[in-house]
Amino acid sequence: MDELNLTSSGPQVKLLAYTAPVNAGETETNYSIKLAVASARTCYSSRLILPEEITEDHIERIGKSIYESGHHTPFTHPTFVFGLSNVSRQFVWAFLHSHPFYNSEQQSQRYVVSRMPEVFIPPIEGENLKIYKDAVLRAFEAYHQISELMVEDNFKLMSSIGSIKGQTEKQIRSESEKKAIENARYVLPIASYTALYHTISGIQLKRYIRMMDSGDCPYETRIVVEKMIEEVKKIDLDFIEKIPEESIGGGVEDDLRPMSIDVWKNEFDKSLEGHISKLISF
Q: What is the pTM of this model?
């Protein structure tokens, strides 16, 4: 492990499945946006409105107006299943799994051995990059050392349990090795690559676009979300372009970045106008 074994292409995103017409022989473009608008029209109709009845005019007029008015539930009907690889566990935890409106099946560090130090590298250079790589290498070296050290201790502990369960020595040995990997995974960097299926609704994709410059790892997040957008454009350009959404920026992080902590403290104290607290809303 002399150097990091990284995938040069970085995060990989592929749209694996999406909401489509039930008739197998039917080819329908921009079905996701038509499904959303049809469901919205049904709310105000005496009958069920079908997606194939939706025209470009409906999309332009109704789709945009309901979205801008905050009537977002119609956009939960279309769903997208993404296959993600070469994304960091930090990104998955801090962004993809920071809300309840998703379903994921993720590669497990409990059962899959992390043989090589494959991690996400942020846009850093010089000494900072060297420190980062050294830390990653040390973490992976510790992972392999702990994995090896724990096998025999696990075997001793699990032998008595295994005999009760009727396991052979080979089975106990195999389970001991798996437990060693499971315990050692705690020293792996949060930047370690993972792979997963990730399913979200149309409205959640819109929210991803709004929030992609915020959170703990905005650089990686923007890369992944932009690739999600490009994948969806291939099957439903109108869903992205006729109902536009854009990033709201990094929020407080962006506000603080240009100034030093001391400057920010002074600005904040000044806003209190000599008080230790100030009512700003009620």
A: 0.83
